[in-house]
Specification:
Order of helices and strands: HHHHHEHHEEEEHHE
Radius of gyration: 23 Å
């Protein structure tokens, strides 16, 4: 009797780590991997590595809080979930027990005075401190600056595209599907803002760049006092 052929049994699927399991639950609740990445303020490729490279342990507490907020608190807004997650994300520990360094882009100003810095939800929640050196250096060099903010549409006082709100806007108003809007204030054509003046505002706000920009927008009647800045970009240049 010929020997029976052995059937090729499929290899057992590896057990998903906790970060991947939580990501699965968030996807079942309607969030994409890209959306989860925005919530933890990381690249979407990292979320994929929860599954392929067993990464994500540092984000488990944040993902647990986000999942609880979605299921029990009924919170669905990505910026609000990102602000919640940012309070529970800590840097991973190296093999020697020290905190791992976070790789970030250096803030530079070119010889022509051109410099750009951008921050999103997690950095904004901590005062956008990464932008402070850019503004301080721009002030030292006597540069001009402009900034772009992103807020909920209802947070602006003036209607979209109003020349009263942002005359000489460098880019047209950018409207997004999540009911937020980006508006720019200042440009090389209109002269922009004095970097030294904004540096003083930042110092008066205890180094909180977000608070300084928010205060200027409220003082000039552009946004509501309870508005929340979701994204912030600062640009500099040398006046002619």
């Amino acid at each position: 009797m010929p020997p029976r052929r052995r059937r090729n049994r499929p290899a057992p699927q590896p057990q998903l780590n906790e970060a991947a399991q939580l990501a699965d639950q968030l996807q079942a609740a309607g969030y994409t991997k890209s959306g989860i990445a925005r919530i933890i303020n990381r690249d979407a490729s990292l979320v994929s590595q929860f599954y392929t490279k067993n990464k994500g342990a540092a984000f488990v507490p944040a993902l647990q809080q986000v999942l609880a907020a979605v299921h029990t608190g009924g919170i669905t807004d990505l910026p609000e979930l990102a602000a919640l997650a940012s309070r529970h994300i800590t840097r991973r520990t190296t093999a020697s027990g020290t905190k791992a360094r976070v790789r970030s882009k250096a803030v530079l100003i070119t010889p022509t005075g051109s410099g750009t810095g951008r921050v999103a939800a997690q950095a904004i929640a901590s005062g956008s401190s990464r932008l402070r050196p850019l503004i301080a250096e721009a002030a030292r060099q006597g540069l001009r600056l402009a900034f772009t903010v992103r807020l909920a549409k209802t947070s602006y006082v003036h209607p979209s595209g109003s020349r009263t709100d942002s005359p000489g806007i460098r880019r047209d108003v950018t409207q997004r599907a999540d009911h937020t809007e980006e508006r720019s204030y200042g440009s090389a054509q209109t002269g922009g803002h004095d970097a030294a003046d904004f540096a003083r505002r930042v110092d008066a706000a205890g180094g909180d760049v977000t608070a300084a920009v928010h205060q200027w927008l409220v003082e000039t009647g552009r946004i509501n006092p309870d508005a929340h800045i979701l994204h912030l970009e600062v640009r500099t240049w040398r006046p002619r």
